[in-house]
Amino acid sequence: xxxxxxxxxxxxxSVALLSGDELIGRSAQGGLSHAQQILGMVDAVLAEAQVxxxxxxxxxxxxxxGAFTGVRISVAVAQGLAFGAGLRVAAITTLEALAxxxxxxxxxxxCLDARMGExxxxxxxxxxxxxxxxxxxxxxxxxxxxxxxxxGTYRGIGRGFAVYPVxxxxxxxxxxDSQALPNAREFARLGALRLKSGQGLDPAxxxxxxxxxxxxxxxxxxxxxxx
Length: 227
Prior knowledge:
Shape: globular
CATH topology of the largest domain: Nucleotidyltransferase, domain 5
Number of helices: 6
Low-confidence stretches: 215-227
């Protein structure tokens, strides 16, 4: 199976192509904006693999949560590429992709900085058919609101743990990587599993996952948070 994955939802901008057992990827942080980089990365991985869009089996799209503009770019790029080539898309969240970086199949808590004093988080476990399965519901809120959905030992991954070290004190949580960001490689792997299982979507049905509607703090809220 050949699956192209795109992700621009966080500080990292990445693209990956899964072709059989081979993965080719590009990733960047900083420099040009995600909108300026993403299509060039797509062209680069397709050229390296000597594959055209028409030869793909589908596209794995990062749907968030993350930066509002980044999520919109990721969804729009995936839709545009899929529409043009007549492909199905697999919707993968940034938290699922983070959880997919943890090699063993036990419970994982994925956590990203949501800005404005909040984090995005969700808990997952490994699954042979779909890659990861949710334990509970992904959420957004202040660090003190984060909790494990069911008792147990969880591996923690994601940059939210670096931004809010207090989260490491959660009982039952062992931090694996506090600097990790989603990468298109995991989107590609998870997308291939979803497409194989019949969970591919028409590109028109691909929708962002924001988890909250608010984009920025008000001036009064910023003053209250100031040290």
